[in-house]
Amino acid sequence: xxxxxxxxxxxxxxxxxxxxxxxxxxxxxxxxxxxxxxxxxxxxxxxxxxxxxxxxxxxxxxxxxxxxxxxx
Length: 72
Known about the structure:
- This protein starts with 9 loop residues before the first helix and ends with a strand.
- The chain is of the alpha+beta class.
- The chain has a four-stranded antiparallel β-sheet, with helices on one face.
- The protein is globular and about 30 Å long.
- The model has no long low-confidence stretch (mean pLDDT 88).
- The protein is built from two helices and four strands.
């Protein structure tokens, strides 16, 4: 039986996600590269993803809010 107030889904447990956008410049997420539990870990993954995909748009998002964007 789940306890009240505890996260139930993976998105609640890992609220940050690092997204790789379409190579063709399309306005769509091609792949979620990673999810993270903390802002510090998410930033580290975001920085590494930018190094792995220097010509691609990478975003770091928490929920619907973009926290960091390699395009701007």
